[in-house]
Automatic annotation (TrEMBL):
Lineage per the UniProt record: Bacteria, Thermotogati, Deinococcota, Deinococci, Deinococcales
Source organism of this protein record: Deinococcus aquiradiocola
PROSITE patterns according to UniProt: SUMT_1, SUMT_2
NCBIfam families per record: cobM_cbiF (TIGR01465)
Gene Ontology terms for molecular function: precorrin-4 C11-methyltransferase activity
Tetrapyrrole methylase domain mapped to chain residues: 2-206
Name of this chain's protein: Precorrin-4 C(11)-methyltransferase
Stated family: Belongs to the precorrin methyltransferase family.
GO biological process: cobalamin biosynthetic process; methylation
Cited Pfam families: TP_methylase (PF00590)
Metabolic or biological pathway, per its Swiss-Prot or TrEMBL entry: Cofactor biosynthesis; adenosylcobalamin biosynthesis
Amino acid sequence: MWFIGAGPGAPDLITLRGARALQTADVVLYAGSLVPEAVLEHCRPGVQTVNTAALDLNAQRDWYARALRHGWSVARLHSGDPAIYGATAEQMDLLRTLDLPFEVIPGVSSFTACAAALNAELTRPDVSQTIIITRGSGRASPVPEREALGLLAAHRATMCVFLSGRQLETVVQELLAHYPPETPAALVQRVSQPEERQHRATLGTLLDGLTLSEWALTTMVLVGGALGEDLSVTSRLYDPQYAHRFRRASDPETDAGSAP
Ligand SMILES: C[S@@+](CC[C@H](N)C(=O)[O-])C[C@H]1O[C@@H](n2cnc3c(N)ncnc32)[C@H](O)[C@@H]1O
């Protein structure tokens, strides 16, 4: 049994290991609300696919128990990386009670795919070296009060807010408690999929002119100084004067005029 990170949706953003596991699975369970059917192209012909969107944990348990009885190999596809808001811990507990061994295959999380789509590095020297991954509070998974957005915002780190498309006004308002309104911010929806769209602005103007209902689903909010495009800060890593184990510092006298 495998838990497989499907990546953000483009079929070629799953890992090779994940695709190989899908090719051998007899049954594939996938969260159809987030994993596009296009990713199922990696499955072998005739495989049994089950959309888990309508299944509660007991119904999923039945599938696992049936697979165990018949000796079927099962792949469970999760959007992005299974370790992030995947509700995988409860399934792992379930599999342990069934004595069904499993392996987790990581995936490209949507937050890194969003950074790629924005051509952004989320960690910039002297701007932010920290990424906060958090979410809007939900009925099924309330966020602990000590992790309220307004508190996390005090760090002014790069922040990626998952699962918050239905609460964009609240999210922006809470972030503005600490981030200055001119902080770069972006919304990215269905990144890597044919319907992908992105919207860049400052935090203070992020929602101006948007039809918010259009951004309710599968949207990531990114905020932080690192998203700015006009930063003059650079890391010391490629500074010619910066020596490290794999490169000596260049000597401006002797290296002058040498070939590139
Ligand atoms: C249940 S979480 C799953 C996160 C997933 N495990 C990951 O690592 O990306 C669903 C949320 O992830 C974000 N998300 C997932 N896929 C996305 C995509 N293709 N584009 C933008 N955001 C996405 C959205 O915030 C969405 O509400």
